[in-house]
Amino acid sequence: MLKAVILIGGPQKGTRFRPLSLDTPKPLFPLAGRPLIAHHIEACAQLPDIREILIIGYYPQTQMEGFVGDMQALYSSSNINIRYLQEFTALGTAGGMYHFRDQIRAGNPRAFFVLNGDVCADFPLQELCDFHEKRPASALVTIMSTEATRQQSLHYGCLVFNRSSGAVSHYVEKPSSYVSTFINCGVYVCSMDIFAVLAQIFHSRGQEYSCQAFCNGNGNGNGREQGHIKWEQEVLTPLAGTDKLFAMPVPNWWSQLKTAGSAIYANRHYLGLYKKTHPERLANVGTKRGEGDGSLICTVHPDVYVHPSATVHHSAVLGPNVAIGPGVTIGPGVRIRESIVLEQAQILDHTLVLHSIVGRGSTIGAWARVEGTPSDPDPNKPFAKMENPPLFNNEGKLNPSITILGCFVQVPAEKILLNSIVLPHKELSRSFKNEIIL
Ligand SMILES: Nc1nc2c(ncn2[C@@H]2O[C@H](COP(=O)(O)OP(=O)(O)O[C@H]3O[C@H](CO)[C@@H](O)[C@H](O)[C@@H]3O)[C@@H](O)[C@H]2O)c(=O)[nH]1
């Protein structure tokens, strides 16, 4: 029996994903019509041995319970239990795993997966598990690894490993100078003995804290929670070179979801994966709607996802790489490409939407133009990943990126919105270019 843990962080995380994360917690942001971590759950559920998926984070229960209920219902017939476990405070990337160790160990799984909730991929979980189980009995963790450029590798965990055995000899989290182009994808298989390592870290921390508290005469020394454990620095780094840490390089598509710009890129890839895994979800076949209802929609340039409850005028043209959410209305002559339109948005007649995300309940008037700048990885650099540039450049100007409308924004007819970010509930009265509209 196997289990999986999905780490989703909490409300203070995902700040670079604003304004989209103001409305929906980042782990639930829809890509190709499904919440980000529903793709993780779907990948886990493909494995016949998976029995339980534990989502660990510090979002309030109320923000996660609807999603968890939907997932439980979806996978009830496959006998997979899905639960959300809330940390009382941010416990870091390994503290939650240790805190909820009894829940992970319950039922005696032979191993468990750990997936960062903010990565997107064609997750090769069965291969990763088979690889891990073929390593020596001493193996505690196998890391899924991919290659990045030399420069980009500095933003990730970097690893040096033996290409035939997979044994990791050196692991550095976000090094300041070049270590390796092989990076940590934030996807792991762990043996159950990893809890002994976590217990050791937790208890040594306890001694450190009580000593500091004694010396300072106050609570827990530096104010950090004793249960806070950094998986990368406190677990992976010391395990390197001990024959307990392994890496499996994979050629599959993989990306992080840090900025809103990366959502368009991930949306495109998840739509592309549907061709292999769930072609019935796509509205690719001629002019037919996805999800098997077969009614006519409009002209579609693959790949396109349209929620069955959306209303799309037959003269609209969608795609490539478009996802249309529930209850969306698309008027006559509308053209949308490389974009995500979230639930209940309305796009009125003859409007053009390019490289943009239209927030929940937003309205774009007729003959308007909403356009952003694509922020894809550099196609001329092998292994290049998405850049996650800051919002502003050194001159204090907005870096060109996709256009984002927060929820319930109103764009009047015949206006142009270019490379701009609009915060929720704004009613625009004119055109904007390269601006954040607060
Ligand atoms: N439950 C919980 N989850 C957390 C916490 N802190 C972070 N996480 C979750 O853990 C994942 C990674 O955390 P980050 O702190 O955002 O790390 P990162 O910059 O993305 O780097 C990590 O991922 C890279 C791959 O995407 C790796 O290359 C890198 O080595 C590292 O593991 C995210 O899904 C985040 O939501 C926490 O306190 N509690």
UniProtKB/TrEMBL annotation:
Signal peptide: none annotated. Residues 3-203 form the Nucleotidyl transferase domain. Residues 301-437 form the Mannose-1-phosphate guanyltransferase C-terminal domain. InterPro entries: GMPPB_C, Mannose-1P_guanyltransferase, NTP_transferase_dom, Nucleotide-diphossugar_trans. The keyword Iron-sulfur does not apply. One of its GO terms (molecular function) is nucleotidyltransferase activity. Keywords: Nucleotidyltransferase, Transferase. It comes from the Eukaryota. Belongs to the transferase hexapeptide repeat family. This is GD25606. The gene is Dsim\GD25606.
